[in-house]
């Protein structure tokens, strides 16, 4: 008789990989970052990690893995959920040190890191930790917004401008996909905007990303508002006119084999969901694909 892990009962680690106290012996660590004080629009992404973990139980319920991948990433790598980074609620100045310390702790062991936000600002301390380990990263950025506003303030619309200024991402190796808001400066990053995506097969977009990144150490950041609000309504700054979830997955699957060292999935704000938790389903599915990409990169 098959034992069945009900997706509606029991412990809620990401894809039911189980919790661990630290990264020792772990190949790929998952952390939650419940932070939303960098939000310029609707708040609530602090509840994202909890919602994405909950729906990941359904995404990851099959012991054979996640469709259409031909294996279970959990069979090939030790994947553990290290829980949430905490200690910054109501104190935004504590966010960066807390996240950088946790990310460094993971990366120092040689493990890969998948982070669940939280608003998109959390990518800045994550990128700092990755760049310290691997040098300036190729950023593969899925989003409706560029998040490169030229502004010395730190929020979820400026952090990639700061990442460029700090030299922790390499614009010449970086690409932004799905943008559909005014963006006066590219900063030298390749932009494949939402209209381009809607006219272009996912495999061709994936090839353009691969050509841009090459074998450079890469970081994949996925703002759920990359998706059209029809597929991801529960987010801080939704923008109509985006691709659907299947398209996003096809692009991500086309990135298999890139030298991806870290990834995050951000901006699910579950209290804006209509019926069906569809944003959290999408977030959990995208994060599962990112987990596969991290696993395959470890096999290069
Ligand atoms: Mn965005």
UniProtKB/TrEMBL annotation:
The keyword S-adenosyl-L-methionine does not apply. Gene3D superfamilies: Ureohydrolase domain. PROSITE patterns: ARGINASE_1 (PS01053), ARGINASE_2 (PS51409). The keyword Phosphoprotein does not apply. It comes from the Bacteria. Its cofactor is Mn(2+). InterPro entries: Agmatinase-rel (IPR005925), Ureohydrolase (IPR006035), Ureohydrolase_dom_sf (IPR023696), Ureohydrolase_Mn_BS (IPR020855). One of its GO terms (molecular function) is metal ion binding. Mn(2+) binds at residues 120, 143, 145, 147, 223, 225. Pfam families: Arginase. Belongs to the arginase family. Agmatinase subfamily. This is Agmatinase.
């Amino acid at each position: 008789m098959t034992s069945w892990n009900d997706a509606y009962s029991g412990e809620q680690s990401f894809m039911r990989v189980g919790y661990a106290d630290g990264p020792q012996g772990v190949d790929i660590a998952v952390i939650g970052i419940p932070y939303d004080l960098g939000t310029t629009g609707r708040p609530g992404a602090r509840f994202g990690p909890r919602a994405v973990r909950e729906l990941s139980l359904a995404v990851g319920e099959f012991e054979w893995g996640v469709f259409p991948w031909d294996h279970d990433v959990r069979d090939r790598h030790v994947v553990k959920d290290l829980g949430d980074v905490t200690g910054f609620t109501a104190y935004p100045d504590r966010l960066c040190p807390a996240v950088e310390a946790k990310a460094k702790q993971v990366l120092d062991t040689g493990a890969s890191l998948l982070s669940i936000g939280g608003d998109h600002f959390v990518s800045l301390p994550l990128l700092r930790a990755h760049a310290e380990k691997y040098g300036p990263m190729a950023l593969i950025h899925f989003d409706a917004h560029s998040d490169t506003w030229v502004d010395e303030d730190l929020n979820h619309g400026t952090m990639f401008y700061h990442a460029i200024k700090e030299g922790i991402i390499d614009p010449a190796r970086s690409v932004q996909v799905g943008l559909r808001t005014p963006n006066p400066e590219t900063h030298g990053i390749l932009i494949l905007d939402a209209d381009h995506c809607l006219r272009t097969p996912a495999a061709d977009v994936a090839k353009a990303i691969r050509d841009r990144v090459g074998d450079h150490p890469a970081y994949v950041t996925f703002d759920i508002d990359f998706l059209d609000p029809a597929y991801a309504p529960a987010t801080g700054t939704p923008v109509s006119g985006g691709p659907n979830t299947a398209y996003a997955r096809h692009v991500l699957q086309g990135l298999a084999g890139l030298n991806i060292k870290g990834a995050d999935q951000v901006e699910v704000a579950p209290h804006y969901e209509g019926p069906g938790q569809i944003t959290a389903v999408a977030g959990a599915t995208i994060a599962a694909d990112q987990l596969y990409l991290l696993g395959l990169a470890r096999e290069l």
